[in-house]
Amino acid sequence: MKPGGCRKGGPAMKTVLAALNAQYIHTCPAARSLRESARQAGFAVTLCERTVNEPFDALLASLALEEPDFIGFSCYLWNISLVRELCVELRKLLPRAFLCLGGPEVSFCAKEVLRQLPEADAVLSGEGEESFPALLRALEAGAPLGGVPGLWFREGGEIQAAVPAGPVPMESLPFPYPELLSGDAASLSGKILYFETSRGCPFSCSYCLSSREGGVRLMPTALACERLGVFLRARVPQVKFVDRTFNANRAHCDAILAYLLEHDNGVTNFHFEIEAELLADSTLALIRQARPGLFQFEAGVQSTNAETLRAVRRSGDVSRVLSRCAALREAGNCHLHMDLIAGLPYEDYASLGRSFDDVFRAGPDMLQLGFLKVLHGTQMEEQARKLGIVCRTRAPYEVLFTPWISYEELCRLKKIDSLCGALYNSGRFRSSLAFLLRDVSSPFAFFESLAAFAEERGAFDRPWGRYDGHALLLGFCRSRGGDAETLQWLLRFDALREGRARGLPDFLTPPQPPEAAALLHDAARNEAVLLSKFPRLADIPARERPAEIRRTLRFAWFPFSPLTGEEGGRVVAIDTSTAAAREVKSKR
Asked: Model's pTM, two decimal places?
């Protein structure tokens, strides 16, 4: 509701916070934190959490039919265009509603946003846990808005600048998921939950908004652990920490990891963004104690070009970064995701290829090649103007070309990234890719050639079926005169590890010798051997064990060991519940 327009003596102002997430499984921690801050201040706030993939009419109706007095939008790269469209139509439907935008996509260009979007009444910049309740109090009382920290608003036809909002004490932040506290967590089923124990970053990378913040503020470790206990008791599938550099403070990091180790519920996975160079031996020692799947880590490398790293203010020891990441992988019990960014200053196509190779050799579970986004409010915004880096005008402001890399080369890199994602990051082709890459000096050159082969066959112009990746790798191997017969068996092995034995295409069912059927039959009934190979079967009651074996184990004959490469025919049992594979001898 417009200032001074609240109902005198009537019901309280009806307030809605709209969070338009990128995917259904996501939740919006910022909007949830604001909701809880407002509730603690005595305001009733409704959270409307939807996705950008829903029909526009459905999104518009979900907001307009509520007839709220106040709608606040949490604005990010992935939803800002949609938020703008909704504001235009909501202003027609709700002419007296107060439309307010907040979040990183508008905080650093608030005046420009209000100029471009006359339908919006205000932008709440910066951290909002204290300023949002202050805004609601002013609106309900019909009081002047000039004292609300961080608020840019219209008054008398002019845009009024904000009084700077200070940092919010970390100990005062509300817990964003009260549903877990009340035992009513059904609405969060199947969702990824997010949690923060720090704000700010010790680094000043020019492409990142965190460079605008000074230093790191920590939530008291005891409070952080108390709240993590809520997630553990609720047995949620995954919690993603949104701390920009979780291990910036070693003592804080180690204390939290130790708590999670001690209170592990055997179910919940915790995801952290870390700076690999800061990864201490004490932290690695804790990580090595974790059950597989308890922790996963994301390490941003961005580039291994020293000149590039200096230009974006990421000084550091690249060799230590890579060696620490390799040490994480060697632990063998945690998923590691490593990032590169294409389009950074002074990195050309060949240099990017070298960065790719350096990171690939560290052995991450996932290697993501991102593309520079020139975000409003970052130092990169000014750097781009000075250096001639050209990006899209609209969100996500992705780089189009630079003085060092062309648009055509960036398009080629996107195809390489697409194949890397579908074939390597998916984990579906571990044995096949290991075989193809065993004598390759440059993984980047391999994916570059594979991308050219795929493009010639129109593979980027259509959706892929389940076995198109298998066919692509086999065809590529044959085109280069490789050992297609061995690869064919390994592709079969990879397909079987996904739990599918029936319905495999002909090229994944090579001929087997006559004795294979009998060997498979005997191996499947050799319960003593299967118990020794798959210890989890011992936990199944003896009467139920044969059915469990039939349900979860797949048996396949191979002319060599797909696990070791040793020659000679053998039977391999694959546990489809874990993807574990073991060689099994028959009774014969």
From this structure: 0.92
